[in-house]
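Colleagues,

Please find the record for the two-part complex below.
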Amino acid sequence: MNRSLLADRIATITLWAIALFVVALLAGIIIHFLWASIGTLSIDFLTSDPSDFGVGGIGPLLWNSVYMLVLTLILTVPLGILGGIYMAEYARPSRITNTIRFCQELISSVPSIVVGLFGLALFVNATGWGFTAMAGALALTVFNLPLMARLVEQAIRAVPDDERQASLALGASKWTTITHVVLPIAIPGLVTAVILSAGRIFGEAAALIFTAGLATPTNYDFSNLNIFDSRSPWSPFRSTTTLAVYIWKINSEGLGTFVREIADASAAVLVIMVLFFNLAARAFGRFLQYRTSGV
Amino acid sequence: MSTAVFTDRQAISRPSTLRERLDLSRRMTFIAAIVVVLLVGLLLSFIAWNGIQLFIRASVPLLSILSPDWAPSTDQFGILPFILGTIGVMVVAAIIATPLSVGLALFIAEVAPGWARNIIRPAMEIFVGIPSVVYGWLGLTILVPFLRTNFNAVGFNLGFSWFAGSLVLALMVLPTIASISYDALIAVPGDLRQASLALGTTRWQTLRHMLLRAASTGIMTAVVLGMMRAAGEALAVQMVIGNRPVVPTSLTQPITTLTSQITLDMGNTVGGSAWNDALWTMGLVLLVMSLGFVSLVRYLGRRSQLS
């Protein structure tokens, strides 16, 4: 065989091998956690309190993760969507637009531990709140806001201009055009943006260690609906250890006989959630695409 | 084409009219967009202010932090081991991850049949989404014991180490580098590909001599972004690297990084102490590093636009 043909054959085989290796690695990781969590992962584990003596559970931590996610989304989604609209529809090349763009890029590149330090200085110490869900959610907002704004901007830019012109030609104002024509078409993109950033928020730990605290939560009283009472699980002003932070915490403390079981099962829960968010983003995006455009 | 109209609209660079400036919805969205600038301003000033306290409040001489001696109990705040550790871990991770990622990007862009592409692209997204503590935990419970049992037999004393940290990071940045490289590869115009193949080259010759060269700036951007992610990663690295504040000299040695040390010590030090201030200084160093990375990415982006 000719040398260059041989090289081509070898290259093709190598590229296939790399792809197989990477997919096998991912499948291996997922299967490993599912396998390692057999025997620990149960409804009881997902709902009961952590325990110093047995395997216990992750109920309050799971609650905190969901709580933190919802709180962060409440802060991020409206601002992100409005900011994305500005960048896609109103912004013209100018110094301000460039500055916004640069700041978006800068924040998405700042290590999350540095965002955590910033949160510690501003939202924990300067505000005097201490380690709270609010401080954690604000820290998460710092790096999710630019991400969300960028994704929303892309979704809006992908809407064909004909749609805008048709609406404007009918005499609709710019804002009516945006809210009644552009946004409905962009919705699949917006939903995907929200779900993908939700996955990121759910798994984030480094930015939360110094902002939302490390206390192990127990005995949540869900009937206490007073959101200003720091003992209420509904309050944003209470120490809020999330599941991702908990994995790091029990490992770094190294206490307890069941660290391995708890962390394996918790990691499995995180991986399953990431899978879920990902598949949901895909399925929902496709569903909405079908609903709005019929293809 | 709608895109043509679209670029036109963007290119019009005239000052805003009075009517536009009075437009309430425009102002409302503008405020939402400007929040990010405010956040960056606050972040830079808070980190910088706290980061320089080591030199002001604790009056540690500025250049003494570049010494290799880290012994906070005797007021020696050399952070050189951490800076070199961060760079070392990052570079080795990039060396491991880049060939695999670029290979993977080439595979998806050029070689993969449709069904394979439909498996790998979603798989990459899931890969990116896996939380870093999960990677750290995986490194701690699988990778480190694996290295220990398999390499000690052949004479390496390998466990918690620079190498382990780089391996975990390589796994984490692989999908990042691959997906951005992929974008760069498919942005290369199809005519170039056809022209090359029409000259009678094999697919590999086309990939190697034309495609990789045409996409080189984009691939460099991908590697820089991957390295940026690696340098800023905290928990996963901290769990496997061994956390020993020494200047890294060997891949098998336990070392430490800026991020690991901040993670470990922040909770154990009192705010306002020199030790605590030194951690903020490390945070400032990380921030300056990411500013450098962003500038580099911007420079590469401008270069690819020019060519």
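Confidence is low (pLDDT under 50) at residues 1-13 of chain B.

Comments are welcome before we finalize the supplementary table.
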